[in-house]
Every structure is written in C-alpha cells, then in structure tokens.
Amino acid sequence: MRPGLIDRPTCNGYAGTLRAAVIAAILAGSLLGAEPVRAQVSISTYRNDNARMGQNPNETLLNPANVNPTAFGKLFSYPVDGHVYAQPLYVPNVDIPGQGRHNVVFVATEHNSVYAFDADNSGAGPLWAVSFIDPARGVTPVPPEDVGSDDLVPEIGITGTPVIDEQTGTLYVVAKTKEVSADGVHYVHRLHALDITTGTEKFQGPAVIGDTVFASGNYTYVSGPSVDGTGDGSINGRLFFNALRQHQRPGLLLVKGVVYIGFGSHGDVSPYHGWVIGYAAADLARAPVLFNATPNGGLGGIWMSGAGPAADTAGNIYVISGNGTFDTAAPRTNYGDSFIKLNPASGLSVADFFTPFNESFLEAQDFDLGSGGAIVLPDSAGSVAHPHLLIGGDKQGILYVIDRDNMTGFNAGGDQILQEVTVIGGSCITCGIFSTPAFWEGKLYVVAVGDVLKRLLGLVGTVRRDRQNVGGRARGAPRRPVRRWVPPCCGRRVRTACPPRRRPMWAPPSG
C-alpha cells in the first residue's frame, strides 16, 4: 500500500492542504509517563452519540491541566493508504483472534481501505486491514474527473464516517468504486458489514446500494433503489439512484436495528437528489427503506459537511437538505433547504419540517441550509412549553432553534420557529456555518467560517452571546494571545467531561 495522506477539506468543500504520510489520531498526555492514555468508553458513531451533541460525558482523565503544549501530544502514528475524511472510531478490549485483546482504533480511507489499529502499542502494526478494490480486475476508487468535481482529490472511496454496533461487533461502512468490465464502466456504492475482530463480511454483506453505468452521456441503472417521481434524471415517472452522481458524505446512523445512509452530490453536478436509505443491520439482503428529498424536482442533497443524521430517543431521524426544489404549498414532495423529521415507523415518511421563509433566495444563491448538521438537545435545554429542541446552522451564518414537536413548516410571511441567532454575517457560498454545534451543560458552542469559537447561553427565545469567546475575545476586550485548537473554519467540536468548569473543547477541522 502506498503512503497515505491525511486531508481535511477547506470550508468550500475543496481538499485542504494538511497532508501527512501517517494517520496521527492517537494522542495522550506525556505526564502519564510510559503508560498511554486508554479511552474509557467506545466512540462508535459520529460525534459520540445519535443526538450528535458532541459530548463525551464519560471522559474524566483529560482536562485543561494536562491538555497543554508540554504534557499532551502525539504518541505515535500509523501509515495508511489514502486520505482520511471519515472520523476514526474506537472500541476498547476487542478480542482479536490469535492476537489477544486490544483497544482498537478503526480508520477508513478514500483508497477504500479499513484498518484496525492497536490504540496503545505502535509496535503491534495493523491488527487487520481490508481493501474493497482490485485494480487487476478493474475495481478502483473513483477519479474526481469522472464525477466532474474536484471537491475530493485525488480519489473517491470511503468518505462518510462508519458506525459500529457493539452488541454484534459489526462495523458498517459505505465504499464507492469504479468498476471497468466488458459491458461498460460501472459506478457502485456498497454497504459493508465488517466483523470488528477480523474485518470479514457479515449479515449477507456487502449490499449493493446502487450500480450505474455511464457512457456517451447516458445512464444505465443496473441496480439500486428508485421512487416515483418526475424529477431530474427520471425515466417514465420513476426516479433512480444515480451511483455516479450521488456522494455518500454524511456519517452513518444506527438506530433501532437499522443503518441509515445519507447522500448528497459531487459539486452540484446533476442529476442528483438528497437520499436517505436504511438497511436492516442484521440482514443487508433485505430491501431498504427510502426517502428522497426532491423526487419531482432536483438537488436537495443531504451532505451536512459530514455530520451524520441525528435521532431522538423515539427513533425519529433529523436531516437538513441543501439547496434544491421546494414546494411552497401542499401537497409537498420536494424539500430543498429544509430541516426534515423522518418517521421510520411509516417508511421514512416526512413527519414534520421547517423551511426558511426566504428559501427561494437561498436556493437561487446556493446558500445551503444544510451546510452543517443538526443536534437533538436534551429536555433540560428546553422549557416546559418547548422541551424538545433541534438546532442547526446554514451558509448565512444563522443558527435555527426549532421545537421538534412543532417544526412550523413553511411560512412565506416570516419564520415561526422559536429563535434564529446570527452567529456571523456575510452570506456567500463559502461563508457561514459549515459545522455542527456542540452542547454542554446548558451552553452551545459554534464556530463559523473565518470566525472564532463562540459560546452561546440560554435557549428558547433567550439565546445570547456569552461575554467571552472561546478561543477568541469578548467585544471591546483587549487583544491578547490565546492557545486554542480551533481552526479558522469548519470545526467539529467535541466536549469531554471532567471536574466542573474544567472541560477541554476539541475542534478538529471538518468539511
């Protein structure tokens, strides 16, 4: 395998310049001497839990006293074979056949490989590794020129963060491949279910999500889901999943025995639509459940800068769509630029939604509502009248505070949600919020493009700026040097628990 590259995209979706020949995701405090930090709980999904709040309440060892430039840093690194966009995951005490028990970090690359590394011992090497390509047989990652976009370079493979089911010891991951055969060039998305102890396939996997042949400007849909619709790329009233144009960017969601997968696009190259596709985790051969955001229109991709769909305790699923067709009046089938609540109990039907009053402006200007992900807040964050809150931001730099029990739909005369908070002004297609907020003990943390990390206090009609920025300065305060790990844009914030008022905030770049 060739040397790997860590690559984090800039806020406009283009590949960034942070590159290295290793994956350096294993950090610890040198104050602990020869003994490395051993994580206390698993990290099995994007941002730690399905609410996507970015909390790790079980972390008690790391705190601002030992997370500092002198006592905290890289312990060691491992080589990988491609760029890493997916968040690494972690499971402790995994019994690897013939190798004993290990704390394991799982890493997926754009070269379509998945690695299991020992999190504590660099000398162990990969515990196992699997590859989903076979160049000798014409199976490779997808070149960016094939999709007509350089959002991802130099190849497209695994982009969305996998998800792990600890009960069954299974890692679910989606890989995209280009497959050249005698009957044409196929573009294929597959859902793999891997045993976390060996990397072998499970549960009738892999499942072919979609297989599309593209030649001379024409698409042949070999296999894949379809829905009724007359939207972009439809054929005789049927809209098919286009495996070349669809991009699996969001993290995967596992809830109530179903793996949900979101899809957007590569650089807005049509025809594409926002899709959510759900597979039975224990049987990938079963027909999936489907949601299409714009079956009678176009676009409406679900990408959310890599954030996974969120879910509440009842199993309802929340996504935010990007610019695309929206129906201003009922009956609605198209939900571009919308917060969408999906009910799995009725086949991923739309249970409720919110669309800003200026949706047509957002769509025309490419000011995606879904440039970041949504978080489901605990009841303690709300009020007696509005205990169930949902929050997410957009390219305008606005945070939307929404009642999940009454998302208020679309109102041309003005939005009727609980509150809208401008985090940063200056709308443009590469401005605003390209990240998912974090929530901790009644405070909301958010960073926008070109801005500092900000802490907001209070919710439900009283959201306001704290007197101090986190990693910045309060308005009117004197400038002073600060130590922070907050990038200038695209942060993915995670809070870890420790003694009161001493909680580190992690903000690696994202996109």
What would your notes on this structure say?
The chain is an all-beta fold and 511 residues long. The chain is built from two helices and 35 strands. The chain has helices at residues 144-147, 359-365; strands at residues 27-29, 55-56, 72-74, 89-96, 100-108, 113-118, 126-131, 139-140, 163-165, 170-181, 184-195, 207-215, 218-223, 226-228, 238-240, 246-247, 253-255, 258-265, 275-280, 289-292, 310-311, 317-320, 339-343, 349-355, 375-376, 389-393, 398-403, 409-410, 419-422, 438-440, 443-446, 454-457, 464-465, 494-496, 505-506. The strands form nine sheets. Strands 8, 9, 10, 11, 12 and 13 form a six-stranded antiparallel sheet that branches. Strands 16, 17, 18, 19 and 20 form a five-stranded antiparallel sheet that branches. The chain has a five-stranded mixed sheet with strand order 21-22-23-24-28, with no helix packed on it.
